[in-house]
């Protein structure tokens, strides 16, 4: 028998044809998508909502003021040409004159004279100087000029209670700028709110008490220190 030789290309074509008619079993490959496992972050410590301003420091209803001038010797009506306001370091003469304009250059009663005094006090209170006030000292009316004196409120001492580990000077130094004369409620409340955010302090409240004389106040501060162990543990967990 004579063997017939075929070229290599012929055999390759036969193999390809066979594979097309009888395909080999296919092993399905599964694609496994590996999702990166993100570490679960430690929950941040809850930030306590700041209490409203009225809880940090109760508002004073009226600023302290000396006793009202006596009615004795005062005529039913007087005409004031000018008010001389003494002791004001906050407001300009123009601002004060604008407030007192309704009471000048016309006959006014003694009750209206007291309204002029209260108008100066209200000017201070409306701008946050809640312990400042004005009063009319005893005087003789000369050339239609009435003198009004202003007492600008100040804090004579800061009393701090509730501290165990913190030094009182730590708190006092943070309130010093906010208690400069004349005392301003808005600045004091802002300083108290900043202290409330201090991680070393859990809670803070304050109260203004009457001092040794009109316009002088004692600032009483009640503090609750934060649990420093829990604070350090929480910070360590966040770093790890």
TrEMBL record:
Query: What sequence ranges are listed for the domain Polypeptide-transport-associated ShlB-type?
Result: 79-153
Gene Ontology MF annotations: protein transmembrane transporter activity
What Pfam families does UniProt report for this protein, alphabetically?
POTRA_2
Annotated GO biological process: protein secretion by the type V secretion system
> What Gene3D superfamilies does the record tag this protein with?
membrane protein fhac (3.10.20.310)
Q: One Gene Ontology cellular component annotation? A: type V protein secretion system complex
**Any idea what this protein is called?**
ShlB/FhaC/HecB family hemolysin secretion/activation protein
Q: Tell me what organism the protein belongs to.
A: Symploca sp. SIO1C4
- Taxonomic classification: Bacteria, Bacillati, Cyanobacteriota, Cyanophyceae, Coleofasciculales
């Amino acid at each position: 028998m004579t063997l017939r030789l075929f070229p290599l290309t012929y055999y390759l074509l036969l193999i390809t044809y066979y594979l097309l008619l009888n395909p080999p079993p296919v092993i399905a490959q599964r694609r496994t998508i590996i999702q990166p496992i993100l570490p679960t972050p430690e929950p941040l410590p809850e930030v306590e909502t700041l209490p409203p301003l009225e809880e940090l420091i109760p508002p004073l209803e009226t600023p302290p003021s000396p006793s009202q001038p006596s009615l004795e010797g005062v005529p039913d009506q007087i005409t004031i040409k000018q008010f001389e306001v003494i002791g004001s370091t906050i407001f300009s003469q123009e601002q004060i004159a604008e407030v007192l304009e309704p009471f000048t250059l016309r006959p006014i009663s003694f009750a209206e004279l007291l309204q002029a005094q209260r108008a100066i006090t209200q000017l201070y209170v409306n701008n946050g100087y809640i312990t400042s006030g004005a009063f009319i000292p005893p005087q003789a009316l000369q050339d239609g000029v009435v003198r009004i004196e202003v007492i600008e409120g100040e804090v004579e001492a800061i009393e701090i209670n509730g501290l165990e580990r913190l030094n009182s000077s730590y708190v006092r130094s943070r309130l010093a700028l906010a208690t400069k004369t004349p005392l301003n409620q808005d600045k004091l409340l802002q300083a108290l709110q900043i202290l409330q955010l201090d991680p070393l302090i859990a809670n803070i409240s304050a109260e203004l008490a009457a001092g040794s004389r009109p316009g002088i106040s004692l600032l009483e501060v009640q503090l609750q220190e934060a649990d420093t162990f829990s604070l350090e543990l929480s910070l360590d967990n966040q770093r790890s």
